[in-house]
Amino acid sequence: MMYNDTTLKMKIRILEVSMIEKYKEENRMNDAKRYDVVVERLALRGAKLEDMAQITLDLQIKYLPSLTFELCLEHVQKVVMKREVQNAVLTGLELDELTEKGLISEPLAEMLSSDYGLYGIDEVLALAIVNVYGSIGFTNFGYVDKTKPGIIGKLDAEGKKDGKCNTFLDDIVGAISAAAASSIAHRFAK
Ligand SMILES: [Ca+2]
Fold it and tell me: How far is the CA of 31 from the centre of ligand 1 (A)?
């Protein structure tokens, strides 16, 4: 059977659209699947989403007195659903874990295991997380990075112990909490 040009073009277009939809669907599922892995990896390192939601609540409650912990947790989950965030978390956690196992070579190993103050790439990686939420994200992240509230201070102190490395983890946790706070701020912006 012969197709005229228009029919053929239409058929190709339909095929393209269905392939794009299939691609989108597969990727959506991959992100959802990866979400569970990311949440589990964070928990294994001592950082639960609930701890981040608490920081988010503390950050935003002064602007939104009716804000609840549950809503904060929802926004933390939304942040962790994003692919850029998942990629940053997986990269950072891997570097912390490899450092603890002694699998990083010098001079990087010494910088990561001592949480060297001028290293700075841990904060840069965390910016990939807050970047998703614009300038409010950066402001919130700067604030939690300085004040180290809740679990962040705990992780920071724990990372200074022998054989432990939380160089990336504390910034990741701060960035996710800050991003969730920014997500809430955007949601309720007047
Ligand atoms: Ca750090």
Answer: 26
Distance from C-alpha of 174 to C-alpha of 185, rounded to nearest angstrom: 16
Q: How far is the CA of 123 from the centre of ligand 1 (A)?
A: 6
Note the pTM of the prediction, 2 decimals: 0.85
The CA 35 to ligand 1 mean position distance, Å, reads: 23
In this structure, what CATH number is given to the domain that contains residue 42?
Answer: 1.10.3760.10
Q: DSSP assignment, residue 112?
A: H
Domain residue limits at 35: 5-187
Structural domain total, the chain: 1
What is the Å distance from ligand 1's center to 168 Cα? 5
* pLDDT more than 70, % of the chain: 93
Q: Is the dihedral of CA 108, 111, 112, 116 positive or negative?
A: negative
Q: What is the mean pLDDT of the chain?
A: 90
Pair of tokens at residue 153: 């201070």
Cα of 28 vs centre of ligand 1, distance in Å, is: 30
> What average pLDDT does range 152-170 have in this prediction?
94
